[in-house]
Design brief:
By secondary structure, this protein is α/β, with parallel strands linked by helices. The protein has helices at residues 2-20, 46-55, 97-104, 119-127, 155-168, and strands at residues 34-39, 63-68, 81-83, 109-113, 133-135, 146-147. It has one domain (2-168): 3-Layer(aba) Sandwich (Rossmann fold).
Length: 172
């Protein structure tokens, strides 16, 4: 238990370092690829997300999902990937190759659709090389370029607002 607390503190220092060095340069290019980071306990409706992005012209092949799960029993066939606390090492080290590849992928937009303050979710959001990051939580404003503060159950409100702001920013 004590080691877990030290590990979390080590990863929190890594997150703070990543966020301090984050550059706020956003390109004006339209969106072609989207990464979606979810908390499995807050939102599970993969199809709704896919339908929304298809409706704005993003192909399913250009969507990549990663869901965080606290439960060891959770098995999904619809998610691209699931990660757990066990996929994290000390000082920001990732033990999951797919998760590491997800953070290194330069998505045009990363959607962080979670309110949870789990260090594992925050670390992946901070590590992501995505060009433009959108979140629904304002716990740490350094993480995102755009925050749309909604409850995860109000996906329709989120999509309406996201579409509006992406249009304003000439990303659609």
């Amino acid at each position: 238990m004590i080691l877990k607390a030290f590990k979390e503190k080590s990863n929190q220092k890594y997150i703070n370092k990543m966020l301090m060095n984050r550059e706020g340069v956003i390109s004006n290019e339209t969106i072609n690829s989207v990464g979606v980071l979810l908390n499995e306990s807050e939102f599970k409706d993969y199809e709704v997300i896919e339908k929304f992005f298809n409706s704005i012209g993003i192909l399913s092949s250009k969507l990549s999902f990663f869901a965080f799960s606290d439960s060891k029993e959770t098995q999904h066939n619809t998610w691209d990937n699931i990660y757990r606390s066990s996929d994290f090492g000390w000082r920001g080290k990732l033990k999951n190759i797919e998760l590491e590849n997800f953070t290194k992928t330069n998505f045009d937009v990363l959607i962080c659709y979670f309110l949870a303050n789990d260090i594992e979710l925050i670390q992946i959001a901070a590590m992501s090389k995505s060009n433009f990051k959108v979140g629904i939580s304002n716990e740490d404003e350094r993480l995102y370029d755009l925050i749309i503060e909604v409850n995860p159950n109000n996906f329709e409100v989120f999509t309406t607002e996201l579409k509006k702001y992406l249009t304003i920013l000439n990303k659609l």
